[in-house]
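Annex B.
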Amino acid sequence: MKSLLRRAFFYLVTAWAAISLNFLIPRIMPGDPAEHLINQFHGRLSPSAVTAMRALFGQSDKSLWQQYLDYWHNVFTGDFGLSYAYYPATVSEVLRTSMWWTLVLITLCTVIAFVLGTGLGVLAGWKRGTWLDSLVPVTTFVSSIPYFWFAIIVVLLFAMTLKWFPISGGYSWDATIGLNWPFISSALYYAVLPAFTIIAASVGGWLIGMRNMMVTTLSEDYVRLAEAKGLPPRRVVFTYAARNAMLPSLSGFAMSLGFVVGGSIVTEVVFNYPGIGTVLFKAAQAADYPLMSAIFLFITVMVLIANLLADVAYTFLDPRTREA
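ABC transporter permease: predicted structure tokens.
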């Protein structure tokens, strides 16, 4: 318990530092967030219009310390101002409508790829030298293909040539968003190609990493002792070997969950999927600093939560990390 409390305190300090940097970096950059939008009018705005536009987008004349306190208030209340790219929608509204697309699709695919890859890695390490080892070069080759190129190939083959799936989008234009079967079935249909791309491109890394760790762990003394005691092979593999071999993969899985939003950019842009990755891409094009800052904050929180959950899982899986 002391170990978990100490780690929780560490993550709180890390969250404070990350949020403070997220506040400070946009403010030390040249110019200000509203300047990019004002420059698009090429000097045709009157001084009063410029002042009104800066006030509209939250540009304040307050001191840096007061802005910092206001920023923390906004973090806890979820008020990040208006979005330039999606005006007149607020940043919170844009995040609310896009985050679920990313969290459901990308997170679910990451979990599936992790479970499938580590499961096949356990079997390949246990039955090394058999036909299961042939999965390693195949999946590694797929994983080594540039991500955007692999996604384009998938679109070209299954959407444009075979016409089995739609080229882009998240749901049919005539579907009404909500908990109704026409919308859910349409969203599932449109998610097939992005999901296949993510899983196919990710499973190879989990497989080869878990396979190599299994080979190493199976040669450890405690595994050989378990075999010498006459324990069933399945118990030796899954209780003694796989449990310990999975620890490095678990840490990597936590990091992949944390960066699931950032890693979704390429997939969502290629498939024009309505998630946070696409929103971040459009925000960068429009220099929408409030929206980008909120997304970066969201990614930071995701990474910290994922790593905290990984530490908790470590405590239960590996007794050596516990304090007496």
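The chain has two domains: 2-77, 91-321. The chain has 14 helices and no strands. Further annotation is deferred to the next reporting cycle.
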